[in-house]
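Continuing the series of single-chain predictions for the mutant panel. This is the parent chain; the variants come on the following pages.
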Amino acid sequence: MTKHVTVVIPAYNEEQTIVGVIRGLKARGFTRIIVVDDGSSDRTSTLACQRGVVLLRHIVNRGLGGALGTGIKAALCFKPEIIVTFDADGQHDPNDIAQLIEPIEKGKADVVIGSRQQDSEAIPTSRRLAHRVANLVTYLLFGLRTTDSQSGLRAFSYEAASRIHITTNGMEVSSEIVAEIARNRLRYTEVPIKAIYTDYSMSKGQSFKVGLRTLRKLVMAKVQRAVL
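Parent structure:
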């Protein structure tokens, strides 16, 4: 059942968690895993390579968007039925992938995003507020309502993934993916997923300063799309 799924993990300095994430996925039968080491300065690449994954490495740190773009393009080469993106910081539960891909398997959706908001009590208040702002901005700019536009746990059919073009390098990629869903008129749905927050995963999130920079980049992306 899992052989038709390729999992893409963007990773930057994740030596503390990458082995556990890979083990968790493999324990649930997901054996085709692509780790994109986005210019890490720690042992992320070494540890991932030891776990028998497809390892791709950026020489310099490009950002989340750059890593996802590289990973999805590589995944398409395997021609899987479904491509799943999965964060490297231990925030996601691999058990959630089964329900994530089900709408695609049943032909009911092209893209599925795992929504942490339906488990909102597990989300720290600061992060919950940041998600709401990001959802509102994403809707105002790109016209698609989501409850968790910034979720890193997503599933794409092969056809949908091949039509989504990632041009941004940073954290704004999550909203860009939502924009691409809308632009391509892909069938989209959400499923609830478990939110696993630790001090480590919280440290990996966007700060207020980074959030403002991401907002500026999103506005610029909207302007560029309007021009094109």
